[in-house]
Automatic annotation (TrEMBL):
Limits of the Saccharopine dehydrogenase-like C-terminal domain: 141-390
Record protein name field: Carboxynorspermidine dehydrogenase
Species assigned in the record: Cognatishimia maritima
Record-linked Pfam families: Sacchrp_dh_C (PF16653), Sacchrp_dh_NADP (PF03435)
All residue ranges annotated as the Saccharopine dehydrogenase NADP binding domain in the record: 5-137
InterPro entries (alphabetical): NAD(P)-bd_dom_sf, Sacchrp_dh-like_C, Sacchrp_dh_NADP-bd
Superkingdom of the organism of origin: Bacteria
Length: 403
């Protein structure tokens, strides 16, 4: 159906590119480009071995817009799938506009020198993409991504309005490491240590990082402590579903993870500003990333399950009053590794990136402009989750959450 250029060759890319190759009727030609070409070649070799599909590889610094434009033109790509880092979102959107290519990513733009992720930088591209007749799909991972599609599916099929929504992300996986993050350590730690924000009655309320803890019994995972965090879908959901009175995000962390994160923060290892070391400028969090395990290598070691979903309360479509639904996926780390050689966090991000790109190539999501996932029709995406390894379930709860 279409030629695809994937940028970035980390853990998420590994899973996404394998799943694209498994859907060769949709992804007719795949090129994988990244800063370090050997990582692209390693993924290409694994795809060839596991799936029997040849993909092309290239070296690319995404910050070089002219080089990206040239590569888009050379490959004839219809869509660029950005699986590099949030820092590259705007330069890759610029390159897509210049080369006439659709765009998709899994995380919103974040300036490298300020730990602040907000959509306004990317939403400012709305008119440019519309005028160019191109589509940009923002945040097509699991959270953000599937969690927003879940909300839209509930609004299309179960609830007329959503009064309150909680996004719950549990990783019950154990990788045997003293401290490791599930995706890029720099991005992960910036997110986890950020001030908490949630949407309530028309305003953002703030609280210190890791200050609100709730015990929750996750399907397939069991009882875990989850902590309130800020996450980018809170901004897009509260913007696009203005009836939402309260939107919160929760993620599970073990005590050891929190202890390590706090110690690293206290000693300055998570600083994002340059410091002089031995006559050389270094950025502590980037040095820390070099020391920590590469999340892409944790697949073989990780056992257990992840469960991510939404609990939403609102007026039922059938006029029966207020209803609460819990919609979620349970994903098994070892099953992901057996299928594509990834752990579940890379898999639960990479598969929705593939499905989002497939929606564009199939022509379902091709309206020109810049779109968040909850603005797009959910049905075929939800069907593909079921057939592509991320089956979901929806259950009615007795009433709204009590935490
Ligand atoms: P990794 O660090 O494993 O991979 C990032 C890749 O991007 C690396 O191959 C890196 O190259 C490459 N890269 C970085 N800078 C450039 C550049 N300037 N030009 C070209 N390539 C570059 O990250 P993950 O795979 O863990 O995460 C990928 C993305 O997915 C991130 O944006 C993350 O925030 C997002 N994510 C989204 C989730 C969701 O559910 N929505 C969940 C998890 C992650 P090199 O190896 O040379 O450094």
């Amino acid at each position: 159906m279409g030629k695809t250029l994937v940028v970035g060759a980390g853990g998420v890319s590994h899973a996404a590119v394998h799943k694209m190759a498994m859907n060769a009727d949709i992804f007719t030609e795949i090129t994988l480009a990244s800063r370090t070409k050997s990582k692209c070649d390693a993924i290409a070799a694994s795809v060839k071995e596991r799936v029997g599909v040849e993909i092309k590889t290239a070296e690319l610094d995404a910050n070089d817009v002219a080089a990206t434009v040239a590569l888009i033109k050379e490959t004839g790509a219809e869509i660029l799938v950005n699986l590099a880092l949030p820092y590259q979102d705007l330069v890759l959107m610029d390159a897509c506009l210049e080369a006439g290519c659709h765009y998709l990513d899994t995380a919103n733009y974040e300036p490298e020198d300020v730990a602040k992720f907000e959509y306004h930088w990317q939403w400012a591209y709305q008119d440019k993409f519309k005028e160019a007749g191109l589509t940009a799909i923002l945040g097509s991972g699991f959270d953000p991504g599937v969690t927003s599609v879940f909300a839209t599916w509930l609004k299309k099929h179960k609830l007329d309005t959503i009064r309150q929504i909680d996004v719950l992300d549990a990783n019950g996986g154990d990788n045997g490491q003293a401290f490791a993050t599930n995706f890029n350590p720099e991005i992960n730690l910036r997110e986890v240590l950020a001030e908490v924000r949630h949407w309530e009655n028309g305003e953002w309320l703030t609280s210190p990082a890791m200050s609100t803890k709730v015990e929750f019994d996750f399907p397939g995972v069991g009882v875990k402590n989850m902590y309130q965090m800020y996450h980018e879908e809170l901004e897009s959901l509260s913007t696009h579903f203005p009836e939402i009175e309260r939107a919160r995000f929760w993620m599970t962390f073990g005590d050891a993870y929190i202890m390590h994160a706090k110690v690293l923060e206290n000693v300055g290892m998570t600083r994002i500003d340059p410091v002089m070391h031995d006559g050389k400028e270094i950025i502590p969090i980037q040095f820390l990333k070099t020391l920590l395990p590469d999340p892409g290598d944790l697949g073989a070691l990780t056992k257990g399950k992840a469960c991510i979903g939404d609990i939403a309360t609102g007026q039922a479509k059938d006029g029966s009053g207020e209803k609460t639904y819990y919609i979620y996926n349970i994903c098994d780390h070892e099953e992901c590794y057996a299928e594509v050689g990834s752990q579940a966090v890379s898999y639960t991000t990479g598969v929705p990136a593939m499905i989002g790109a497939a929606q564009l190539l199939k022509g379902n999501w091709k309206e020109p402009g810049v779109w968040n996932m909850e603005q797009l029709d959910p049905d075929d995406f939800m069907d593909m989750l079921n057939t592509q390894g991320l089956p979901w379930q929806v259950h009615e709860l007795d009433g709204p959450v009590e935490f």
